[in-house]
Amino acid sequence: MKRALLSVSDKSGVVAFASRLVELGFEIVSTGGTFKMVCEAGIAAIEIDEVTKFPEILDGRVKTLNPYVHGGILYRRDQESHRETVEAHGIVGIDLVCVNLYPFKATIERTDDFEEIIENIDIGGPAMVRSAAKNFKDVLIVTDVSDYDAVLHVLQAQEDSFEFRRSLMIKAYEHTAAYDAMIANYMNRRFNEGFGAKQFIVGSKAQAMRYGENPHQKGALYEFENYFTATFKTLKGEASFNNMGDINGAVKIASAFGDRGAVCIVKHGNPCGFALRENLLEAYSEALRCDSISAFGGVVAVNGVVDAALAQKMNELFLEVVIAGGFSDEALALFESKKRLKLFTCNAPRLIVPHDAMDFKHVEGGFVYQESDRVGEDEVKNAKLMSKRAASEAELLDAEIAWKVAALTKSNCVVYVKNAAMVAVGMGMTSRVDAAQCALKKAEAMGLDVRGAALASEAFFPFRDSIDAAAAAGVATVIEPGGSVRDDEVIAAADEYGMALYFTGVRHFLH
User: Fold this and answer.
1) Active-site residue flag, 134
2) What is the pTM for the complete model shown?
3) Is the pLDDT of residue 68 over 80?
4) What's the CATH class of domain 2-191?
5) In the structure, what pLDDT confidence band is assigned to residue 428 with cuts at 50, 70 and 90?
6) Which among 134, 233, 236, 338 is annotated as catalytic?
7) Is 216 assigned a catalytic role?
8) Residue range 142-170: average pLDDT?
């Protein structure tokens, strides 16, 4: 008779799993709460201390750390010396190990009590998982509840191949590695401000991608927690590696305005259109006016539900991606004829972003790691008026939009907003003056009037020349962080032109 060891923290489905294992000829060995649960279900089981010949001690800290357990898991069935050793010591083989670990994550989310947190660090569980994974040719290691049915199927069909066992082995080491990474990262957050000697970035594969940035590069999408599997639903097409970068940028900007109706158009990682309106069709139309040329083949994020009227308008231009809180059935029907269009939804009235606490970027040889940057809701509201003239309520709304878009646009950048719509943007430039000039040149080419607009810069203006250029374009309001050694000259220039000038005191570089 084969023997299965069951010791699980997540007990969902374990009774049915144990019952089927018994039907397939397995003898069940179990621990603690798992043993109690299967016994109460009428399933015959052996308690772990009958195997170890030693009682559970130290309030459960030691119960499976025993040669009768690990010997039974680790001995190689194909080596005579191993078989002789276990027989000499009365060790019974364990052929299947089903273990998932103490709920460390749930514990740190529930309490800050360090003693309780320490007690929810599993020791015996990872040891059994690693032992079984090491000997995967002889032992099935099951760490995921979702694998119960597959394991039972291959056992029933006698198809537990080397490849199947190997796949469970890989998942087992992923399981313990992620668990240890979570503990280490937590300890560093608690005691080292999140920046310890080691930093672990762990993601779960959400979906494969046909390729990376280019066809010769392999790629896949990984997620923290379950953000993409839970809130990112594909309705049409398949997201590419490049799509995901543009979607990320568009969604972050469009969702930065709470429940307000916002539409953001992104191309190659940069916003080329944005507008805020109660009516989403109007918002899209206004966003499109900023740069309809760049919008061709772009990604559109809609902070709301796309209806038939908006879908019909979108169909007038080739768009690669539309992501929205949702789509009406009529809108989906209208989009059906667009073969190359990809549609994604957050399955909610509005766009959803996870607001990751930390951010990182690959550099050759490693990565740089930092706290995530976020635009505070009150940054514009609390901005300090530096000029003699104050902005009107409408101008302050334009300033808020320009500021938030600038904060989420590649530096150096400047953003011009008029009547709650972006009318010009210059981004990713080596000079802030160049960014301003490129933005104005584009606006002129698109036939857009920036007079009366609000201008935002994500970092301070080092010289008054940017104010001079803004005044020449007819800008009414300027918002920037301040902090230049020549702030006095910038303020004087704003007063000279009768502009409203605000300093937020916060810089938002994005590189």
Assistant:
1) yes
2) 0.88
3) yes
4) alpha beta
5) confident
6) 134
7) no
8) 94
